[in-house]
Amino acid sequence: MTDLSLPLTAKAWSLDEVEALYALPFNDLLFQAQTVHRQHFDPNSVQLSTLLSIKTGGCSEDCGYCSQSARHDTGLEREKLLDVPAVVAAAQAAKAAGATRFCMGAAWRGPKDKDLGAVAEMVREVKALGMETCVTLGMLKPGQAEQLKDAGLDYYNHNLDTAAEFYGQVITTHSHNDRLDTLAQVRDAGIHVCCGGIIGMGESRRIRAGLVMELANLNPQPESVPINRLVKVPGTPLAQGEDLDPFEFVRTVAVARITLPASHVRLSAGRQELGEAVQALCFLAGANSIFCGDRLLTTRNPEADADRALFSKLGLHGEPVQGRRCAG
Ligand code: SAM
Ligand code: DTB
Ligand code: SF4
Predict the structure, then answer these.
(1) Out of 208, 229, 266, 271, which one is annotated catalytic?
(2) I want to staple 47 with a disulfide (CB 3.0 to 4.6 A). Which of 127, 173, 289, 300 is the partner?
(3) pTM for the structure as a whole
């Protein structure tokens, strides 16, 4: 099996260095990002993951962006944990549509032990389809990561979401340190780490740079780095803020690519709102992973036909399972 583990980080990034990347002229930044990208990856290959919400809504946490928090009135209907056959059917459909990784998300602060057994069974069955497996279940307790690893889990998604100094303005029911603690447990269990954040929540560029710096200084760096653009869900505290300038989003992708050179950088939430031209700039800036399928967890994602058309126009192709990095 191909070993996707990343080497230990060679360089610690300072906030000033990351901010200096952000401040480059746009063309210089994109040229640098594309150059780094080509040293580590096939520039026309994009990893395709599909998401499924296996347990929707009613979450105890107060994340200011989230449609699934029980504390926000978003009109979302709660659903219980799906059963294993329903999850397997969705994974089969995702595989038939070209996805190589299946990511299962639950609206929990963290999994209860009784639920974790059911999720482990889902992981086993999806893995048996020949897909890579990913789950995002919130904070883990000791022993839970090992149980998931034993079931065949490849990736655990757990985002830092924003820089430490801004975290308390978005989420108060758990802390930035809690997130780091779960990430350490995932890493120790030998599971690949998927860790990124959200931009467009009213944070300054310095906060955005702080988030990228924290991600880049995780040691080893996360194998997968989702960059989410805030989806403004009516009823959430962050729904009323100003829209982020699209070039600032592209800059964030480029800065992530330069500082996390061997990680997959994923265009995640908010892709629907970016449009084709901005997505193309993101691929030029080094994004090489997307979610495919017309739904993320609770919000919309581009239709499969729209993604197929975009890939055809840009000459992009899906990355094979456990695609090897180019020697570089
Ligand atoms: N409950 C688990 C947790 O918090 O880790 C897993 C699910 S949570 C929905 C996964 C991630 O989705 C969040 O960390 C956040 O980065 C992203 N996300 C959720 N709602 C979003 C929104 N409205 N816009 C952009 N990203 C969002
Ligand atoms: C991540 O960073 N983004 C995905 C995945 N990890 C789980 C989730 C995006 C959710 C967007 C809002 C929604 O659909 O509810
Ligand atoms: Fe719950 Fe996760 Fe949403 Fe926060 S982001 S409210 S923990 S589902």
Answers:
(1) 266
(2) 289
(3) 0.95
Residue 68 exposure: Cα atoms within 13 Å on the Cβ side: 21
The set of protein residues with a Cβ atom below 6 angstroms from ligand 1 is 65-66, 105, 107-108, 136, 138, 158-159, 161, 198, 228, 230-231, 233, 269, 297
Q: Is 78 helix (H, G, I), strand (E, B) or coil?
A: coil
Contact 146, 182 (CB under 8 A): no
Query: How many whole angstroms from 327 Cα to the centroid of ligand 2?
Result: 31
Query: Which residue stretches of the chain are H helix?
Result: 15-22, 26-40, 84-96, 113-128, 144-151, 164-170, 176-188, 205-216, 246-259, 271-284, 304-314
Instruction: Return the SS3 of 229.
Output: strand
Q: Measuring from atom 2 of ligand 3, which residue has the nearest CA?
A: 107
Q: Would you call 101 helix, strand, or coil by DSSP?
A: strand
Report whether residue 107 contacts ligand 3, using a CB cutoff of 6 Å.
Answer: yes
pLDDT tens-digit series, residues 244-279? 999 999 999 999 999 999 999 999 999 999 999 999
3-state DSSP assignment of residue 122: helix
Please say if the pLDDT value at position 96 is more than 60: yes
Q: Among 47, 100, 101, which residue's Cα sits nearest to residue 264?
A: 47
CA–CA distance, 176 with 164 (Å, rounded to integer): 6
- Beta strand 317-318 with 192-194 is unpaired
Residue to substitute in 49, 60, 62, 65 for testing ligand 1 pocket (most ligand atoms within 8 angstroms of CB)? 65
Q: For residues 255 and 285, what is the distance between their CA atoms, to the nearest angstrom? A: 8
